[in-house]
Amino acid sequence: MSDGTVINLCNYLNKPISLKLRSNGADIRSVDVLTGKNVSTIRLEPLEYKLLKVSD
Predict the structure, then answer these.
(1) Which of 34, 41, 45, 53 counts the highest number of beta carbons within 10 A?
(2) Which helix (H) or strand (E) holds 27?
């Protein structure tokens, strides 16, 4: 795996949520570590988790 930061997300709510990673008002693109797919908008079901890698 190349350099970057891995972000661990988990939805502990009882309802689905959608979110975007942002920095200084700009969307941050990331890669799902488990699937290798590029991610921009993230949807998490209750108790679902994702590991996302962002470049430094």
Answers:
(1) 53
(2) strand 26-27
Domains held by the chain: number: 1
Can you read off the two tokens belonging to residue 1? Answer: 């795996």
**For residue 48, what is the domain's CATH number?**
2.60.40.1180
* Structural domain range at position 11: 5-54
Handedness of CA 24, 41, 32, 46 (dihedral sign): positive
Q: Is the pLDDT of residue 14 over 90?
A: yes
**Rounded Cα distance, 18 and 56, in Å:** 24
